[in-house]
Write a structure and sequence with these properties.
Layout lengths: L2 E10 L15 E11 L8 E12 L2 E7 L1 H12 L10 H16 L5
Antiparallel strand pairs: 1-2, 2-3, 3-4
């Protein structure tokens, strides 16, 4: 099967976080690669998503992290939305606490 790879640059205006990261990533531009595999249909070309990876370069070190493309889309939408004051009763605050609990239980994540 043949594969294809798309590379795009995404710019975040504000710090962001994705599942698997143990801390916020700073605002800035990030390279995201998406790899797809050809399905081999006879009538027209079709592809299946294989992996989405974000590349984080910092202090002369480059790291590659597999991410959920849907979660990346949500992070992009949050970045473009107007700032929201968060408190302990808001949905974003509870979602953030869920992330903290999950990652503390696992004890793993990106830097």
């Amino acid at each position: 099967m043949r594969t294809r790879r798309h590379t795009r640059t995404i710019t975040f205006c504000r710090p962001f976080i994705l599942d698997g990261f143990n801390k916020m990533q700073p605002a800035g531009s990030y390279v995201v690669e998406t790899e797809e595999e050809e399905l081999g249909t006879a009538s027209f070309p079709a592809y299946r998503h294989m992996a989405t990876t974000i590349i984080i370069s910092r202090l002369g070190k480059t790291e590659y992290f597999r991410i959920d493309p849907g979660e990346l889309d949500e992070a992009i939408l949050r970045d473009s939305a107007p700032p929201v004051r968060q408190d302990n009763l808001s949905v974003p605050a509870w979602r953030g606490m869920d992330w903290v609990r999950r990652n503390r239980a696992r004890g793993t994540g990106a830097q």
